[in-house]
Amino acid sequence: MEPLTVLASRKKNSITRLNTNSRIYKTIIKAIQEKKGENIIALDLRKIPEAVSDYFIICEAGSTIQVRAIADFVEESVKKQLGENPYRHEGYSALQWILIDYVNIVVHIMQPATRKFYKLEEMWSDATLHEIK
Fold first, then answer.
1. Using 50, 70 and 90 to split pLDDT, how confident is the model at 106?
2. Could you tell me which residues are beta bridge partners of residue 58?
3. Which CATH number fits domain 18-131: 1.10.357.20, 3.30.460.10, 3.40.50.1970, 3.20.20.140?
4. Whole-prediction pTM
5. What digits encode the pLDDT tens for the residues 10-31?
6. Which end of the chain is more exposed for a tag (fewer CB within 10 A), N or C?
7. Nearest C-alpha neighbor of 130 from the set 46, 14, 72, 69
């Protein structure tokens, strides 16, 4: 984990702020859907000054194999279509919760029990929640 001072220094530039029509947002959502990620939501964090990104995209996967498959496909799709690598990714060893950080969008791929335990939606309840169908 990075020290909080590093996270605080990652200033968000209003010019590069994303929205739901941004290519990276759409690419990530489509990649999750193609690998059958479930209960997909996007938390819009743009109006929360303390937030370290514009969006959290959260989804569930039923097994460790599916968690890895979704994460790999998200990274592959974003790299292939947009030429971007993640700033950082974590969780590939345990495969309970993989986090892929693209700075302005952070993707959380979680097993259902892990998602229920950490309750990110409640932790960031000030954010606008968008359910993805």
1. very high
2. 41, 108
3. 3.30.460.10
4. 0.85
5. 554 444 567 777 899 999 999 9
6. C
7. 46
